[in-house]
Design goal:
Helices cover 40% and strands 18% of the residues. The chain contains 10 helices and 10 strands. It has helices spanning 17-21, 33-43, 52-58, 90-95, 112-129, 150-162, 179-185, 201-214, 223-226, 231-242, and strands at 10-14, 47-50, 67-70, 72-73, 85-86, 98-105, 133-137, 167-170, 190-194, 218-221. An 8-stranded parallel β-barrel has the order 1-2-3-6-7-8-9-10, surrounded by 5 helices. A two-stranded antiparallel ribbon has the order 4-5.
Length: 243
């Protein structure tokens, strides 16, 4: 399947929650991948983020929205040190029509070396296919006391840059004055805000305005859109903020 070219700017609609969170985030409407993929198409978002099972069953080129296929995943059922390892190859992502691939790294976990090694191999393979690579850079583990502390978020940005990521997805730091430093720490890697936990519409939009002003390239948002009462207009408003 020929992929659409990914724009490294704007709004990415994330729907990669079903594996890690189970169905607890969903209602009768958004539990269906068709519903969320249709949102992406109608709102003309810049990309949709899926895992391979949903992409295989529901995504095709007629959607008209670039696909970022996330290559590693885990469940919440295991309560030990966080680790998420590869479950889909770059080759399969290409076959499914992906315009980019993504991978989560939990720096600070006792298993960080395994994830960093896999990410390095995936990045090298993705370059051969001409695919951008997105890193979900989420420091976690028993040594990480506050994963939204500004110094931790900046470190997460730097890890992505040093590993060769084209895009890094980060949490919003607790100290907003650090937003510019986070961007500088990422170098040429494009920085996207993670939508994260459900916030009120105005609160989330204010976060988006601040990160864009600080130099972020966009947002990767899921629950803050498809859990809302008017997700299409919500996406269009977020697109107007990111430009």
């Amino acid at each position: 399947m020929k992929a659409n070219k990914l724009r490294l700017h704007g709004v990415y609609l994330a729907y990669d929650h079903g594996m890690e969170h189970g169905p607890s985030d969903f209602n009768e409407e958004n539990v269906s991948p068709r519903f969320v993929i249709d949102l992406a198409r109608k709102a003309e978002v810049d990309a949709i983020i899926l895992l391979k099972g949903v992409a295989k069953a529901y995504y095709d080129k007629s959607v008209g929205v670039p696909l970022i296929l996330k290559l590693n995943q885990k469940t919440q059922l295991f309560k030990g040190e966080p680790v998420s390892l590869q479950t889909c190859s770059v080759k399969e992502a290409v076959r499914l029509g992906a315009s980019a691939v993504g991978y989560t790294v939990y720096a600070g976990s006792r298993y960080e070396s395994l994830m960093l090694k896999e990410f390095g191999r995936i990045e090298e393979e993705a370059v051969k296919y001409g695919l951008p690579v997105v890193m979900w850079s989420y420091p976690r583990g028993k040594e990480i006391k506050d994963d939204e502390a500004p110094e931790v978020v900046a470190y997460a940005a730097r890890v992505a840059m040093e590993m060769g990521a084209d895009v890094v997805k980060l949490k919003y730091p607790t100290d907003e004055s650090a937003l510019g430093w986070v961007v500088k720490s990422a170098g040429k890697t494009k920085v996207f805000l993670s939508g994260g936990k459900r916030l009120g519409d105005e609160g989330f939009e204010e976060h988006v305005r601040k990160v864009i002003a600080a130099g972020f390239s966009g947002i990767a948002v899921g629950r803050n859109v498809w859990q809302s009462s008017d997700p299409i207009n919500r996406l269009k408003k977020l697109k107007s903020i990111t430009g």
